[in-house]
Amino acid sequence: MDIVGQKVQVTYENGSQYEVEYLSPDKLRWTALAGETAGNSGVESPVITELGDDRYWLNWLEDDGTTISQVLDLASATLTEFTTYTDAGDRVKVFQQPAMVVLGR
Predict the structure, then answer these.
(1) What is the pLDDT of residue 1?
(2) What tens digit of pLDDT does each residue of 58-94 get?
(3) CB count, 10 Å around CB of 87?
(4) Strand partners, 88
(5) What residue spans define the domains of the chain?
(6) In the beta sheet, which residues pair with residue 21?
(7) Which of 12, 34, 79, 90 is least surrounded by Cβ atoms within 10 Å, i.e. has the fewest?
(8) Rounded distance between C-alpha atoms, residue 7 and residue 9, angstroms
């Protein structure tokens, strides 16, 4: 899987910024560079499906119940993301297309 070893930097509209490294076909490591979670990092276990032409579909569930689904296009350096999480007892749904830079291997 060509995504393994790749690194990207993702910047959201709210100023949060992350570096993400794809460690294996089922592991990624994120590091928060800016925003509310700056300085934090973690390892997630996504399901990664190669869609072809350097495009990948990723989906994972975080420990706090947050679900993240992404379409990552390395060739065009684009990311489309749908996230759900619980806030004050309500399920929140967020669709985003943050800026992404492919840092390479």
Answers:
(1) 61
(2) 999 988 899 999 999 999 999 999 999 999 999 999 9
(3) 7
(4) none
(5) 7-104
(6) 7, 29
(7) 90
(8) 7
Q: Other C-beta atoms within 10 Å of 70: how many?
A: 20
Question: Within 10 Å of residue 83's Cβ, how many Cβ atoms?
Answer: 15
pTM: 0.91
Look up residue 44 and give its amino acid: E
Residue 18: beta bridge partners?
A: 10, 32
E-assigned strand segments in the chain: 7-11, 17-24, 27-34, 41-44, 47-52, 55-61, 67-73, 78-87, 90-96, 99-104
Q: CA torsion 74→78→80→86, rounded to 10°?
A: 90
Q: Name the architecture of domain 7-104.
A: Beta Barrel (2.40)
